[in-house]
Amino acid sequence: MAFQFTLSALVLGITALMSAGVAVAAWRRRETCTASLPFILLMVAVTGYATNAALESAVVSLAAKIMYSKLEYVASGSVITFFLLFAMRFTGEQRWLKPRNTAWLWVIPVLNMALAATNEWHRWIWPDFLPGPMGSNQLIYQHGPGFFWIMAWAYFYTLWAGLLLTKAALRSSLIHRQQSCLLLLGAVVPLIGGSLYMLDLSPPGLNITPISFLGSGLIYFAGLFRLRMFDLIPVARDVLIESMIDGVLVLDLKNRIVDMNLAAQRFLRVTSNCIGEPGKLTLPHWPELAELTQNLLADNAEMLLEPTPGCYLEVHSIPLRNHNQVLTGHLIVMRNVTQRHQIEVELRQANQRLKKQLHEIKRLQVKLKEQAIRDSLTGLFNRRYFDERLPKELKRAAREDYPVAVILFDLDFFKHINDTFSHHAGDEALRTFAKLLQHHCRGVDIACRYGGEEFVLALPGMSLMQAHQRAEEIRLDCQAAYVTYENQRIPLTVSGGIGVFPKTGETYDEVLKMVDEALYQAKSEGRNCIRQAEPNISKLDS
């Protein structure tokens, strides 16, 4: 295969060497940045592109030139794809870098490579070839629709990557922004070269696109060594200083201030001039911070700090250790939690109010329940409570085999008291008898105002004889008592009927019916007396 020296081949050779050098330099820094691998592959692809272009420029035969031109398309398709992958990695667009998405990104470039490789069949890329200027070793390629299709996709991939880098440049820290701008500049140079070649503005037969990568190589070489493109330390440092809203303070083992960001300076009311100084002499809240850093038992000690009235900081102290796990200092992170603290205070206050309200509600519920089962005039239980309670008591007595005595009282001549002395006097009579009834009650007894001037007393575990004795005591005490109303002494007597479960009746209704009949008998026999209900015949027979 014959070769002829050309100036373009020399420049393209230098471009290939420069790209290879950038790839080697990036390889040596591959451990510091995840974006370095796509960049290395990008520069390897550029090296291949420039190498094949140099060989195409130097080779003499038409077949060899076409072969190297096809290889150029393989390399150039790899260049745009690796450049897009690199831009995604560099700008943090990791969601695009799934295996499936990466495979899809290669579909069009691979099809374009196949289109170039099969040009003899369809001639969509190069319909014809013309000899270059007299005396030159150049070949003028006539371009078909396939060429412009490939260029359109090359521009699309490059502009996509450029958009990602532009967004990163606008929102990133200073050094990251400078690096993004440098990468954009390196991408613009080949775009300009490709555009000039596509618009036939370059010298006839000279494809300056691969030559323009010499400028890109120089720019990226400067980025590696001047801006430390794949060194994360300056990027992280710049983000720390300019972007974080949390305060960060770094102390060494002698409690000297190693570093602090702007937020920490603002929180602690100090300036960057204190870096290198002992924290004890420069930090106004050193006692609290020192106490935090001395807590060596915790990997992440925390406290609440109030540097200024009304401002609260959540402070975390994280021990810094080297690869041998030896303590080298402390990282103190401060977060402004004033709003959260105020919300917590308001929540605690609201919780206290809620507890008081719940206590009041419970008190009102108890009161309401009492009102529902208590007679408001006498303070005794009402008929509703008695109708609910006595059936339960009778069921329990049936299970445990003990009697339950029931006494139904009725105040004598109560209507006469109301008509003669007024309803107020009647109310006082009711209250007087209720107090007397309560005085004769045990803890297990149930005393209720049954309705109007009627009262009922349930006596669990008491026989009929004992109940009769209790009723007589109540009657006699009532007879001895009197009601004083407007300087008048109103005599008071009571009649009563007694029954006992289960002899008098086996159900609630039977017992009350028999006791009511006994009360009627007492009233019909002159009042102020106690009568017993007739026993249940069937129960006696059993």
Descriptive account of the structure:
The chain is α+β, with helices and mostly antiparallel strands and 542 residues long. The chain has 19 helices and 14 strands. The protein has helices spanning 7-28, 36-58, 62-90, 99-117, 119-122, 145-171, 174-198, 208-226, 232-242, 262-268, 279-282, 286-293, 338-373, 383-400, 414-421, 423-439, 464-480, 508-524, 537-541, and strands at 129-131, 139-141, 247-252, 257-260, 301-308, 311-321, 327-336, 404-411, 446-451, 454-460, 482-485, 488-491, 494-501, 530-532. Strand 5 and strand 6 form a beta hairpin. The radius of gyration is 52 Å and the shape is elongated. It starts with 6 loop residues before the first helix and ends with a helix. 34% of the residues are buried.
As a whole number of angstroms, the C-alpha radius of gyration is: 52 Å
In what range is the share of β-strand residues?
Answer: 15-25%
Characterize the overall form. elongated
Strand arrangement, major sheet = 4-3-7-6-5
Helix content: 55-70%
Low-confidence stretches: 232-236
Secondary structure tally, helices? 19
Instruction: Look at the helices and sheets and give the structural class.
Output: alpha+beta
Oligomeric state of the chains? single chain
